[in-house]
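sorry for the late reply, my laptop died twice this morning and i had to redo everyting from scratch. anyway the thing you sent over, i finally got around to it. pasting the sequence first so we're on the same page, its 310 residues, then the predicted structure underneath. double check i copied it right bc i was rushing
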Amino acid sequence: MSSDKRGCWVACGVGCLLFLVLVVGGCTVLYLKVLKPTADAAQRIEEAAKRQRAAQRELEALDEQHPSPWADDALGAVEITPELVDRYVVVRAELGPPMAAFAQSETEGEDGPSGLFGFIKSMGSVIQETGASPERAALAEQAARSLGDQQLGPAHFDQLLRVVEHRFLDHPEAWLGALSPTERVEQRLTETQLGLIEELKGVAESFGSSPDETRDMEEQIEKLETRLAEIRDKAATADRAMSPATVQVLESRRSELEGLPGQGLEALFALRTWDHRRQEQNLKVDWGSTEVEITGPGSGEAEDAAEQQE
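ok and here's the structure:
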């Protein structure tokens, strides 16, 4: 064999070897950076969903044992007593650490890859945001303990949050207190759906999506952004009336109430929202002829029944 042919075979072999190295390396990076973390996250979420459903059953039982004496549409007329403020302060203080952990997990989830890798990871994020997470489970477990100790149901506590944090203190994270539990579910799902479509649009464009597909997704994004703006506007103009007796009691404790943990306060408004988790069972995103459907954990009655029998 001539030296030219040998050189050609060597070059070919080296080229094939380099190609294999690149393929293996790419697959390894994909596995380590995306697939394995996503699989691990899915397992953590499944375990958290079981914990969260157990805590939710305890919260639902507390609502039956300690029902709220107030109507949701008459909070402007309620009279909060000093004794009730005492119990509220204890619960809020005990929920501070899991609130902060939940807020931290939300912040960490905002920093991640974009494009195809971002879309793959965002699929797990959708499930987490509409269903369960370790941080949500820990918050629900602590809420069940604290509310049980203070003999408060989640519905009554939610109403106290709406009066104290939203109407009286006007805490920036308490704007959800202007919405009903059902409206809060819609706000969360709409926000999550918007994030997913934005990721999908980026992926589709990187693969050369057609003008029709791009336009359809842009219309979906605009529609969701409009709905979120409407929800925000409704919250901004919501009734914030309080009875004179309630104002007097809360003013006497203002400094104490303002000193309560505030990071992650939005998560507390989800405690009662979880009562409506059946509405979160299916999240659908569609444009044109394509539809993506995600079924979130923590929303199945079959799982609840099976776990209660264990």
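Residues 113-117, 119-130, 275-302 have pLDDT under 50 and may be disordered.
thats about all i looked at so far, will dig more tmrw
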